[in-house]
Each structure stands twice: as structure tokens, then as C-alpha cells.
Amino acid sequence: MRLACIKSLEIISLVLVLWVSAEAQGLTRELRIASGGGVEIVNKYGRVAVRAEPAAGDKPVAAKVTASSSTGVSGGEIKLSDGTATTVISVQPVDKRKRIDLVLVVSERLNLKVETAAGAVDISGNFASVEALTDTGTITTDVPADDLTYHFLWTESKPRYVADFDIAKVKEKAAGRFEIRGKHTEEGEKEGKGEGEKRRKGEKETSDSASPSPTPESEKPKTKDQKPKTVSLNFTTARGIILLNVPPNEVMSDLRERPLTEAAKAIIRSGDSLLMEAIRRASPKYFGDCVRTLPPVKMAPAFSPKTSVSDSPLAPVKTALVRVSDLKNRSIAGLEAKDFEVTEGGSPREILKVEQSTAPFNLALLLDVSGSVENYVTFIRKAARNFVNTVGKNDRVSIVIFNDDVKVISKFTTDKGKLSQSLDTFDAGGATAYYDALAYVISDTLRPLKGDRTAVVILTDGDDNRSFLAFDSLIGSIQESGALIYPLYVPSLLIAEAAANADIDPIRRKYISLTAKATGEGDKLARVSGGVYYQIEEIPQIQQAYEDIVLQLRSAYNITYRSDVSAVTGSGISPRLKIKAKKENTFVTVNSVVAER
User: How many domains does the chain have?
Assistant: First the structure.
């Protein structure tokens, strides 16, 4: 069971509890559950979250249920029936339109049964068995998967599910029903991963008779105090979604298993393990087909003599390329040598000079062309040309467009004429695979330039409806890439209105905005990468954003200082080096260090 899943579902439960105390009059009751017994919950008027907690030593878990509603909950609306074997909880609101949510905390290894209508079901912890029945509610689990049996049934739709590991194939039953039934064990998972790794590397299986195989966990004798670990899941839903040990925030927008796009294939070829795992979840069958077609990795034998730090030549003078930003990630310009402090291993170093950096950037321009209106295409072309004309003459630009897939219309070049011509080679239309496109730029377009100064400028409305990847699966790869992200989010309706009438009604403009989801994601992309988020509310702000981006990119410094530390390979950044700006609430990022000759 993955730590990320645990944290996610703990956050869900915590949010529910905080919501109860802050916005509603909640009702909490203790439960009397017989040892080895069960709990049955029927709530057709809201969602249900159940968390199983281990006992703390000899102290049993205090089982309780908390009911919440925006208008308060009365005692008569929550019915409890403490049976000898099963405790039954049912919700019966006085007003059938009223929503009531339940949060339960119980002890481990109980038998649980939950029934909702459209309400979500969140299950977290070690249960003996879980039975869930919903109409359209999403069923989310975070349960031990080392010995798991599962039976999922969709009665009125094709299956929509995401699992943290490979599960059995879907079987179509009579009367338009679909079923997934199988068993998952930790040993089987390890064996499957090992075979997959061998296939990827092109290795042959070998056996060693002199090395006995380890005894599987299932065959090892269980101690007296060892708890049974088998978990049984039995879910039935009409048209709901089932998430098996996958946090909701890591679920893509389109759950249909479909052939991989060129963007998805390129991400798999890149070898980025975080992004590959996300695509495997989204489309396990086509992911497996793609992996099997990849050529084996050939590792030529080689000897690389290790060079100790003491053997490396000393570099008496070095130059560090740094970026200084404030609390809002905006670059700070106009600093001098007196504004910096350089130390190595805690010892101060003499700063010889500080100059504004003139090093060129590698800029990837990512354009959303999923619109279908000709005015939208014209706008995109004009906006992209304005960006090309704004950047420095030595900056290298690549242009990537996306709708339901990606296409590179111009590789990195400083030729602004070629860049402009490439913008006449596309039309708009199709769905929006924004997250896949951004992952493609990070893992494919910028991959050969890792270590160089790179940035991604994005022009989109921020909404996604077709990606294999979920937004949260991008964050780790973006941070590792070192690329600065500058999202420019433009409401699509703003473009249409601007084309129809240059003087937009100021009252109507208030209703032409981005979704809250897009706004939050754009801001997060900028923060985690060190870039700046631009929420466009008027068309002229786009050019202002371009000019500000160029200013941000140019606000870097070359700091030349004396050093008695040996040269370091790669980026040249010694772990003993510390560079600080004396100005309050400023942060220094060291991009590279070069030894002067």
C-alpha cells in the first residue's frame, strides 16, 4: 500500500472533519461493535468515508460515526442498530433533498458494507472484507494489497477504473454488465515487475542451482500474534468509477482505455519512471504493448576510474550563474557585489565581480490549438509571433502545438523567420490533452538540454479533457527538469469576444474567466518550477506578459569569486557552496558553476 495513497485519503478524511466543525453542525456518536463483527452503512443522501485504525497497544480503537450537513443534523436523522454481529447505520433525513455525509472511524479487520446512490465511498485501512454498492458514486480504496481478492461489477455501463497495479481483464457479461474478478499478491507483483524489467533490458532468465529460492511469505509459518492479511473487495456500481489504491488527485480526465498517442509513446520512451507509471495506470494494455516494442537497453561493459575530490584540480577562480527571486518567485534585478555573500564549507569567499548574465535561453513555446473557431487560430498565430519577436536574438525557440496529441512544428532555432513560417502550418480543432503535452515537452523536447537554461512558455485556457496523465503526476518530473514554467492562461471566451468586439462590455467581462481548477494548477506549475503564472483578463496583457517573461529570464547574475575547492564535474556546483543575497525575503538558485582558466 503506497504512502501517497495513505496520505491522500488521510487528507480527505481530515478535510471532511474540518468541514464538519467549520461549516455545519455535526453529530458524532460512538459505536459498539462486537469483536470480529461488522458494520453496514446505508446513505442514499451523501458520501461515506470509512477509516480503519490499528489499536494502540492494549487500548482498543474508539469507534465513532460523524454525520454532517450544511443545515445541521438532528439525532433522528441518523439511525443506529447495534446487532450482535453487525452494527447498522442508516441515514433518513427529514428533507429528501438534504445532503448528509458520514465519516466513520473503526478498528481493523472488520467486515464492512456500504450503500450509496450518487455519493462517493472512501475506504482506507485494513479490513477483512468490504462490500460497496453505488449507482454513480466513485469508490476509492486504500487497502493492503499484499493479499487481495477483488470482484468489481458494472451493471449499466462499461468499466471505468484505475488501479495501482495490474488487475484481471474485463469480462463482458449478459444484459450489458461488465466484471473484473481476480486476486493480487505481493509475491505476484514482485515476480511480474522482475519479468518486466528483464524484458525491458533484454536480459535472459538464468537459474542458479547453488542458490536456493527464498521461501515465499505465504509459505512461512505465521506466528501466534500475526493477524490475517487477506482483504476481500466486492464492489457493484451502475455507472460509477472505481479507484483501487489510487488517490483521486492522480486520476486523469479520460478514463477510457484507448490507444496511446504519440505524446504518450514519447513519454514512455523517455524512461521517466514517474510519468511512465501514470500512463501504465491509464492504459495498461496499450502500455504493455508499447513497452514490448521498445528496443532493449544495451549496456556496454566499461571501467570508469573513480576520481576522488582530492585528485581533482583546484580552481582558484570560479563563476556561478545564479537567479535571485522574491517570495512571489519573481526575479530581482539591479543587485551588485555588495548584495551577495559566498561561502564554501562555511568559510567566506572573496567576490571579484557580479555581472548581469547575457547567456541565451532555450525556450519551448507550447500552444493550445484545440479550439475550432477560425478567429481562435488567427489569435494563436498572432500571439505566438509576438512572443518570437519579443525574445532575444540569441535565444533558441522551439514551438510545440497540442490538441488531443502533440506536434513539434519547429525545433530549437534562433531563426525568427523560420519560426514565423512554421506558425502557418497548423489548424485548430480536437480535444485537449494539455497535461500530456506539457509532460512531452519536459521529457522529450527539453531532455537533451538538461543542465542548460531552459524555460517553457504556455498559452492555453488551462483545461484538460483528454490526457493520459493527471496533473499531480507532472510535478515531480517538472521539478527534476530544472525548467522554468511560465503559464499564460487565457479564457477561450475572451478570445472570441475580442475578435467580435474590441471594446468588450466591462460587466460581461466579469463572467469571462478561467475555472478555479485551472487557476490553481497554473499557479502551482509556476511555483514548483520557479516561474511566474499569468492570468490573462484582457488581450493586451499577453504582450505585457511576454515582455515580463523576457525580463525575468534576463534577471540572472554571473558571480565570480575566489575558491580553494576542487573542480566538480557536471554542473560544477559543490555541495559546500552557499550563495546568499543580503536583501530580506530573497532566495538564490545556483544554476551552474564554471572554473575560470
Answer: 3
The answer to whether the beta carbons of residues 466 and 256 sit under 8 Å apart is no
* Residue 84 CB contacts under 8 Å (≥ 6 apart), including other chains: 34, 37
Q: What's the rounded Cα separation, in Å, for the pair 579 and 348?
A: 10
Strands 178-185 and 171-172, how do they pair? antiparallel
Q: What are phi and psi of 592, to 5 degrees?
A: -165, 160
Task: Identify the CATH number of the domain in which residue 469 sits.
Answer: 3.40.50.410
> Cα separations (Å) of 444 from 196, 286, 413, 436?
23, 20, 16, 11
Distance CA 597, CA 313 (A): 12
Please check whether residues 351 and 377 belong to one and the same domain. no
Q: 504 vs 383, 491, 539, CA distance in Å?
A: 19, 14, 11
Residues 466 and 352 in one domain: no
Compute the average pLDDT of residues 1-30. 53
Structural domain including 187 reads: 3-200+228-251
pLDDT tens-digit readout, 281-322: 888 888 989 988 877 644 445 444 444 444 445 668 999 989
282 occurs within a structural domain: no
Cα–Cα distance, 42 to 297 (Å, whole number)? 53
Handedness of CA 586, 587, 592, 593 (dihedral sign): positive
d(CA 484, CA 477): 12
Within a domain: residue 298? no
Per-residue pLDDT tens digits for 403-444: 999 999 999 999 999 999 999 999 888 899 999 999 999 999
Total-model pTM: 0.73
CA neighbor of 322 nearest in space, from 568, 556, 545: 556
